[in-house]
Amino acid sequence: MRDHALPSEPPASPLASPGTANPRELAREAVLGRFLRAHRERLAPAEVGLAPGRRRRTPGLRREELAQLAGLSATWVTWLEQGRPVALSARALASLAGALRLSRAERAYLFELAGRRDPMQAQDGHVPATVMASVEAIKGPAYLLDRQWNALAWNAAAAGLFVGWLDPASGERNLLRSMFLSQPLQALVEDWPHRAARLVAEFRAHSIRHAEDPPTRALVEGLLAESPAFRADWLSQDVEERQGGRRGFRHPLHGLLHFEQLTLVPAAAPGLTLVMLMPA
């Protein structure tokens, strides 16, 4: 079935208006075109259930065959391989990735080149067994966050440290909501106003590619209504990378504790974030 969001014929010119295209974007489109063509030509017809045919002048699939397998217009496949500026939907990219039999790494590369988020990335609520095992194996506090920064997994050390968030008595597992709505967590975090503002700036940068997803919008809109402090930090428009560094906690049982934070994206679950705290 064809993607009806795509026209069947190209406009008169490959560029909507001369001089308006970003050269860096055009370079990325050219790389995307070469990538698609290379993978089309290396895919044998027999691998996708097609007869090889007699008059095949180029190796691999024809553009028309790839278009048919992906449910797209052959014109658009041609455009893409020529490096023209084509705004494909995530659904159309997923169809191309499936038709080309791309590996997980190749599929991620395709979506990155196209500037789209893969709908088949690690789904919220699902933690691969290998990632779960890594969280448990870490000696210091460690936890795993989804796209909205809900804690999906954490070890015993994290549960013991994060009073008001990951401890058994807390019913809220979202890091942002706990940071702004949990008084025990606010008391725990050293220099809370600074750390809370920094966390909002990091979340703004982290969530930009899925800012319009319903769960992300619901999280932000809820906090805007419930927390004046979050509202002030969010409206400041600050943006920061989620980096490591020294973290201080005033624990009710163990006193002042300091850690060095390390944040990673697991290769087995690129939609998730693994955070580890090591004694400073």
TrEMBL record:
Residue span, HTH cro/C1-type domain: 35-107
SUPFAM superfamilies assigned to the protein according to its UniProt record, in alphabetical order: lambda repressor-like DNA-binding domains
InterPro entries listed in its UniProt record: Cro/C1-type_HTH, Lambda_DNA-bd_dom_sf, MLTR_LBD
Pfam families the record matches: HTH_31, MLTR_LBD
Chain intervals for the UniProt region annotation (Disordered): 1-22
Protein name: Helix-turn-helix transcriptional regulator
Lineage: Bacteria, Pseudomonadati, Pseudomonadota, Betaproteobacteria, Burkholderiales
